[in-house]
Design goal:
- The structure is a homodimer.
- The first copy, chain A, is an alpha/beta fold and about 325 residues long.
- The first copy, chain A, is built from twelve helices and twelve strands.
- The longest helix of chain A has 26 residues.
- Chains A and B meet through α4 and α5 of A and α4 and α5 of B.
Chain lengths: ~325, ~325
């Protein structure tokens, strides 16, 4: 029986992770989020309402020491830019509180938790046209990325001291988010799939040649579960892995959607380029991650598999 | 009249900076530290006793908005390794509190302060044998370095938002610290100068061929004052400068000491290598800082000038 704590358990990734973990009755799940519904409820499951950075919530969550913590909760990048104080409080300070509460469990109770941290490719800041490698310098251009990077550094230091056993994963945008979710600049990556699959027209805010880094939700969950299970004996001191991704143009995505949903997809799609969105989310260069692949992390395989995984009904 | 705030004003660097700033009667100085003596007292000077991360102390310090803040205070690296909670509180959390209090001054009062942050070469972690350049990746191996790096990232982000106007300087060990100061692993860099200059024998814990990065106290103060004065219009987004240093072996330091204090220095010096100190502080590779030099930052010039500056009586 292992005790698994999940922050942001009601979120897009959190729900899918809970569904997968529930398949194993040996897991005792403690879920933390600001709201819950029945979808994440079930046997061996506690739902704790509140902030993962609230010491009282953490005390309740860790009354039984945690074996594994998936830290998924965060204020999204564009919201954190509009509400700096909120982003600082949640993405940095609450994460530090959680990390140090787990470090105390490790140091005082000798129960060192595996902490899987959902970091982000936002740590890099602007990328050029040259292929990105795993040693790519991080120069975040938004507060969200800065705070994810600072959290990575603290988790690496706490891991060096043996107080926690962290694995930070730099996640790309995950598809296909519910069409109702707004506020993400990269929403087009999910909307193009939902709209064309449903036979609806879609005006895409990036060009046909725009390139992005793609990963489906099931593939993301696979990688999170793998991060919880790997040995960290040979992990880099940063405790950080850039997940492998598919580097695909919108044109390649369209071709895969046509393959699956029919040739009418091409007629449904038009482009009206928003230069800011194109610059921020449509100019990703190639990405090489031999170390992450060697450690067993995976991308979806190809564009067809990406669409199949991304559009699969919730298991 | 400009209002200048200095944290760690009673420290080794702080005292020297206060002496230099006092030469200009147009400066109003607010000094913050845990203890004071008469040396840092004087006209147009307020001494605030307490922590720079204490909101009450900061409110008092910033009743008149600050034009320039020199943030020098920190828990040294080896002490922070022994007392993790203290290092985390001071080097990270108190620094974040100070930075956000200054950001509030910038955002609410429209008075954006220049913040000169004494960061450290400890951000890099282990360096190889190849020359280090300004883009050297930072992979801190001690909490002190991790927290300095995290503070740099937050200051860069607050500067991007226009809330503060930060300049982070990565300082090497500064010489010659008072012989009474202990607890620094790099104490040998100062002790060799004090002992040989005084005609006393010295057993050096690193080899004759050990190489380190050197900067004198007056040179350090020059660079801090320069950092307060430069334009940041073309500063890198990191707001971070690796200061130029002299890359010298203990043998070259001995030669300069002999030059200044006489040939007997060679007889007074012996070596008893501590492998840990040699590994941590005696294996620094060459360092190239063309961007910092172009921005007007300086090292001491040569080994003779280093000794002359380092051993100059307090002005």
């Amino acid at each position: 029986m292992s005790h698994i704590v999940i922050t942001g358990a009601s979120g897009f990734v959190g729900r899918a992770l809970v569904r997968r973990l529930r398949a194993d009755p040996q897991h005792q799940l403690t879920l933390i989020d600001q709201a819950f519904d029945a979808a994440t409820d079930g046997p061996n499951t506690r739902q704790l309402l509140g902030s993962f950075g609230d010491p009282a919530v953490l005390d309740q969550a860790l009354r039984t020491p945690a074996d594994i913590v998936f830290h998924l909760a965060s204020v999204p990048g564009s919201l954190a830019e509009r509400q700096h104080a909120l982003g600082y409080q949640v993405n940095l300070q609450a994460t530090l509180t959680l990390a140090h509460r787990l470090a105390a469990q490790g140091e005082q109770q000798g129960h060192v938790a595996r902490l899987v941290f959902a970091s982000s490719i936002a740590v890099y800041g602007p990328l050029g046209t040259l292929p990105v490698r795993e040693g790519q310098p991080a120069q975040p251009a938004i507060s969200y990325g800065a705070h994810k990077l600072m959290a990575e550094i603290e988790l690496a230091d706490l891991s060096r001291r043996g107080a926690v056993d962290a694995v930070s994963l730099r996640l790309p945008g995950i598809v296909a988010r519910p069409a109702t979710e707004t506020g993400h600049g990269s929403a087009f990556m999910s909307l193009i799939m939902h709209r064309l699959a449903a036979g609806q027209p879609y005006v895409c805010p990036v060009s046909s040649g725009a390139t992005a880094w793609w990963m489906s939700l099931p593939c993301c969950v696979d990688n999170l579960l793998h991060a919880a299970a790997i040995s960290t004996a040979d992990a880099p001191p940063s405790r950080c892995w850039q997940l492998p991704v598919l580097h695909l143009s919108m044109h390649q995505i369209l071709a895969a959607l046509e393959q699956r949903y029919g040739a009418q997809c091409g007629q449904l799609l038009s482009h009206q380029v928003d230069p800011q969105i194109e610059a921020l989310f449509g100019r990703f260069p190639a990405l090489h991650t031999p170390a992450a692949l060697a450690a067993g992390f995976r991308h979806d395989g190809d564009a067809d598999a990406l669409i199949r995984h991304a559009m699969a009904p919730a298991q």
